[in-house]
Design a protein that fits this description.
Distance between the termini: 36 Å
Radius of gyration: 16 Å
Number of strands: 7
Strand order of the largest sheet: 1-3-2-4-5
Helix content: 25-40%
Shape: globular
Largest sheet: 5 strands, mixed, barrel
Number of helices: 5
Oligomer: single chain
Strand content: 25-35%
């Protein structure tokens, strides 16, 4: 699979078929929203864990020195906190471009703060995409993040801003916090 997944995503779901569209963000979408939305609230999904296993060749790194950003890995019994956005289908032109580096849109149940569960969409980067970096030690992940930057800024700022946003909501993510702790020790 190529790095750029925009064309693939356009064929994955017919967005005009949805009565309402909810999008779940589990990384930078928790703290950095650069699109219009109808409503937003904190939410969660189940069965997944956040991991810095996806390469970023276009935002937090370069093709020569990719950064590391989040994807989700299946994880039975886990709960992943994030932010849900009710959006119009037109916003996916922008989102498909933003998430083009190996991410594909999938349908997923999203648990909203009012105990409603809605059918939503999420961008996931699976191990078969060209930008996937996979599992590595916390030290190796942190070192790569520490040494990477791209058009969206320093890769480590992505970690710091996400960790701060999680703490603001009293959410604990040991993987994110371990990477953050290792990065702070390197600074």
């Amino acid at each position: 699979m190529a790095f750029d997944t925009q064309a693939i995503n356009k064929s994955r779901q017919n967005l005009t078929d949805y009565d309402e569209i909810w999008l779940f963000g589990y990384g930078s979408l928790i703290y950095k929203v650069d699109f219009e939305f109808i409503a937003s609230e904190y939410a969660y999904i189940t069965g997944y864990s956040r991991r810095f296993w996806q390469g970023s060749h276009d935002h937090r790194g370069t093709p020569e020195c990719p950064g590391r950003v989040l994807t989700l890995t299946p994880s039975s019994g886990e709960r992943c906190f994030g932010r849900a956005f009710k959006v119009n289908h037109e916003v996916f032109e922008h989102l498909d471009h933003r998430e083009k580096n190996g991410y594909l849109r999938h349908e997923i149940p999203i648990h909203l703060s009012d105990n409603r569960t809605v059918k939503g969409l999420i961008y996931l980067a699976s191990p078969d995409n060209a930008a996937y970096l996979g599992e590595a030690s916390v030290k190796d992940i942190a070192t790569q993040i520490f040494n990477s930057s791209g058009p969206s800024g320093l890769n480590r700022d992505y970690v710091y801003e996400l960790a701060a946003a999680l703490r603001e909501q009293d959410e604990v993510d040991e993987h994110v916090f371990e990477i953050e702790k290792t990065l702070i020790a390197m600074d």
